[in-house]
Design brief:
Layout (H helix, E strand, L loop, with lengths): L6 E4 L5 H12 L3 E5 L3 H14 L5 E4 L6 H15 L4 E4 L14 H29 L2 E6 L3 H4 L6 H20 L4 E8 L5 H4 L3 H9 L9 H12 L10 E4 L6
Parallel strand pairs: 1-2, 1-4, 2-3, 4-5, 5-6, 6-7
Length: 248
């Protein structure tokens, strides 16, 4: 098992890519603390996962990711329970399609607070223990729009460009402490939100993908497993595109 006895925290872990990542980590032997936006969602996800993995070590937590004190208290609980945090997956985020001229300051801040400040808060809360042990992995969810942008919802690609810069800079700073920092940039992935999009909208998008299919949450989760494992022990500061595209 690639992650045997490793302690992982996965934010946004109650559905979609985050849930698939929790599943993948459990299959590889990790102990996982699943973060959700509300405790009831975390508890529901943990109960479902316990049916699939009855012997798994699982916790459900629901800190306010935009509030450092809330994050630190939740992460301290994980460290007290399992002795440390080996892997952090910053997956929680919110997308947006608001036209630029329709933005309010509050709407723009809402996206940046979760997608950027939340990543900072979680990494900051986890890194002291990692530095003390001279070992750790921090993984961030970026997006294909951090590479190509998107027409509308400028806060979302702005936040993901920021995640890429955060990833690269933190990798350079924490590398000497034995900590690797990488990101995964998913393409169009078949989550619950995407399944609600009409077929006539999806088909032209799929036609532009060389592999001629949408990504599955498991595709992204497998990338996280690889980057979290010792198979990627000499990889840091990378934003890995998992989008079915071919680029030079």
């Amino acid at each position: 098992m690639l992650l045997q006895n490793k302690v992982a925290i996965v934010t946004g872990g109650s559905r979609g890519i985050g849930y698939a990542t929790v599943q993948a980590f459990l299959r590889q032997g990790a102990r996982v603390a699943l973060c959700a936006s509300r405790q009831e969602n975390a508890d529901k996800a943990v109960a479902a996962l316990k049916e699939e993995f009855p012997d798994a070590d699982l916790l459900g937590i629901a800190p306010d990711l935009a509030d450092y004190a809330s994050v630190k208290a939740a992460f301290d609980k994980v460290e007290k329970t399992w002795g440390g945090i080996d892997i952090l997956v910053n997956n929680a985020g919110v997308s947006d399609s608001t036209p630029f001229t329709a933005y309010t300051e509050e709407a723009f801040d809402r996206v940046l607070d979760l997608n950027v400040k939340g990543v900072y808060n979680c990494a900051r809360a986890a890194c002291d223990g990692m530095i003390a042990r001279h070992s750790g992995v921090i993984l961030n969810t970026s997006s294909m729009v951090s590479i190509c942008g998107q027409p509308g919802g400028v806060a979302y690609p702005t936040s993901k460009f920021a995640v890429n810069g955060f990833t690269l800079s933190l990798a350079r700073e924490l590398g000497p402490q034995g900590i690797r920092v990488n990101a995964v940039a998913p393409g169009i992935t078949e989550t619950d939100m995407m399944r609600a999009v009409p077929k006539d909208v999806i088909e032209p998008l799929v036609a532009q993908i060389p592999l001629r299919r949408l990504g599955q949450p498991e595709d992204i989760a497998n990338a996280f497993v690889f980057l979290a494992s010792d198979l990627a022990s000499y990889i840091t500061g990378v934003t890995l595109s998992v989008d079915g595209m071919a680029r030079t």
